[in-house]
Write a structure and sequence with these properties.
Blueprint: H1 6-19, H2 24-48, E1 58-59, E2 62-63, H3 64-67, H4 69-78, H5 91-95, H6 100-131, H7 135-170, H8 179-211, H9 219-245
Antiparallel strand pairs: 1-2
Length: 248
């Protein structure tokens, strides 16, 4: 609450006593003159008292910065604000990418997992089946090796290469001019050639021997199949390194 200075109260009482001794016209002119004097006195108070002087850059005790606050807020609401998310590589840039990219990347990774996983898991359970010495288990393993190889290697291997080439095209990468994509493709193609030229014929040969009941004759072809198969598997796992390290 505002506190009235004591000299205002004393001046007001003296003024009331003086008005009681004047006629009505004198009182009117006295009021006019009195207001002018009081206005001049009030305006002179800040100049004489530094603590009551309005600070520089203000009008009527209000800062210039507060006068147009409402207008500025309305104008600010109509203008887009730029944040770090708008910078290159920020969140907004990532959201503006085509939705096909995450789909292609997911397909590429999932196909790679199933492709390489089939090589590893098939090699492990086939080895255990042949070491068991059970002829029925060996014949079953030979049939399933050929079946899983055709399904997982052919379908998901093709999906890995196709989705990888599609990703390179969308990113503007020449797969034969970039070192890491070129080496990855070379390993994948060489592995595919070995699979078609060596592994699949061995699998067909073992499957025929198993049908004929010649389980004892499966040991040597299975050993050759295991050596070539694990070599191809290790070569394919090196592709993961090229995909992550991206050597140039």
């Amino acid at each position: 609450l505002a506190v009235t200075p004591p000299y205002f109260v004393a001046g007001f009482e003296t003024h009331q006593l003086q008005l009681g001794k004047m006629s009505r016209p004198q009182r009117f002119f006295q009021h006019v003159g009195h207001h002018d004097e009081r206005r001049a006195e009030i305006e002179a108070i800040p100049a004489a008292t530094p603590c009551l002087r309005p600070p520089a850059g203000t009008i009527g005790g209000l800062h210039h910065t507060h006068r147009d606050t409402g207008a500025r807020e309305m104008e600010r609401g109509t203008q887009p604000r730029k944040t770090r998310a708008d910078d290159q590589g920020g969140l907004h840039a990532e959201r503006s990418e085509p939705r096909a990219m995450p789909i292609l990347e997911s397909l590429h990774v999932a196909a790679g997992v199933l492709w390489l996983g089939n090589f590893v898991v098939t090699g492990i359970w086939a080895t255990r089946a042949f070491r068991s010495g059970d002829e029925r288990l060996r014949r079953f393993a030979v049939r399933e090796i050929l079946f899983t190889d055709i399904i997982f290697t052919l379908i998901f291997g093709s999906a890995v290469i196709t989705s990888g080439l599609a990703l390179a095209a969308r990113l503007g990468i020449d797969p034969w001019q970039t070192l890491w994509t070129r080496d990855a493709l070379a390993i994948a193609i060489a592995s595919g050639v070995l699979w078609l030229a060596v592994l699949v014929p061995i699998e067909i040969h073992m499957e025929r021997r198993a049908r004929a009941g010649e389980s004892a004759a499966l040991t040597r072809p299975f050993l050759a199949w295991s050596i070539v198969g694990w070599t191809v598997t290790l070569a394919l796992f090196s592709i993961i390194y090229f995909m992550l390290a991206k050597p140039v």
